Amino acid sequence: MAEQQVQPLHNEKHANIKVKNGVNVDFLKTQHLMPVVAHEFARVATEFPMAFVKNTETGQFQAVAMFGLQPGENLFVDGDKWTGSFVPMAAARYPFGLVKHPEQDQFGIVIDEASPLVGEEEGNALFEDGKETEYLGRRKEALVSYVEFARVTEAFTQYLADKELLVQQTLTVEIRGEKKDINGIYLVDERKLNELGDEDFLELRKRGYLAPIFAFLTSTHQVARLARMKAQREAS
Fold first, then answer.
1. Most buried by CB count within 10 Å: which residue of 50, 117, 156, 221?
2. Which domain of life is it from (predicted)?
3. Distances (CA, A) of 35 to 31, 32, 62
4. ∠ at Cα 171 (165, 172), nearest 5°?
């Protein structure tokens, strides 16, 4: 995979730069987990299993979509094609990113110049006569939304952790007659959820957390789908 060359976006330096639509398959093909935000859980659940992973250093949890059953494996990349019908926001925002200003609560937009989606030949122009194009405006809005969604998701995840609703589990899948364990992931504890008192349950409803919780629970059934995909891949 080519090294990234992330640079601050500038109307003079990037005057002639265009960005093609699509996803950076080169990057995705080695990603078996991808961060997701609560706002897209319902959409993610139709295709990918979700889990929470714990940062061993900070103890913080992060919600992720699973694209594969082991590190470095993405079952949704076939050759140079993304076969999923949906791309989580964390991947869709590439080749752009936001970088927080060290002293102020402000963000600057950056672009990966080495991305296969970036060039001068084809794609969507970023600037016209030094001014931002409508396309760039939309991409910026999406980046800002993502930062906001990520904050909300962090609060949601922390709340689940505080209420002890996240439990470490081993998922067992069967691939061509062989059982395989997936360790180190956390799921929503359905039993504990059902045992919550009325007050706590109401609080979840008030905060708008019930929909993402149910979407998350539904998504875990997609693990069987990944196992089928892996079996097919190994058979071929």
1. 50
2. Bacteria
3. 10, 10, 7
4. 155
Reply yes or no on whether the pLDDT at 100 is more than 90: no
Residue 112: which of 19, 12, 37, 34 has the closest Cα? 19
Residue whose token pair is 């539904």:
218
Interatomic CA distance for residues 158 and 41, integer angstroms: 16
Before 95, cis peptide (omega within 30)?
yes
8 Å CB contact between 32 and 70? yes
pLDDT at 36: 97
Can you tell me which residue has the tokens 């987990």?
Answer: 33
- The pTM assigned to this predicted structure is 0.88
- Per-residue pLDDT tens digits for 31-84: 999 999 999 999 999 999 999 999 888 989 999 999 999 999 999 999 889 999
Between the CA of residue 126 and those of 93, 115, 117, what are the distances in Å?
15, 15, 13
Cβ 38 vs Cβ 152: under 8 Å: yes
| Burial 82-100, CB ≥16 within 10 A → b, else e | bebeebbbbbebbbbbeee
Span 118-147, average pLDDT: 93
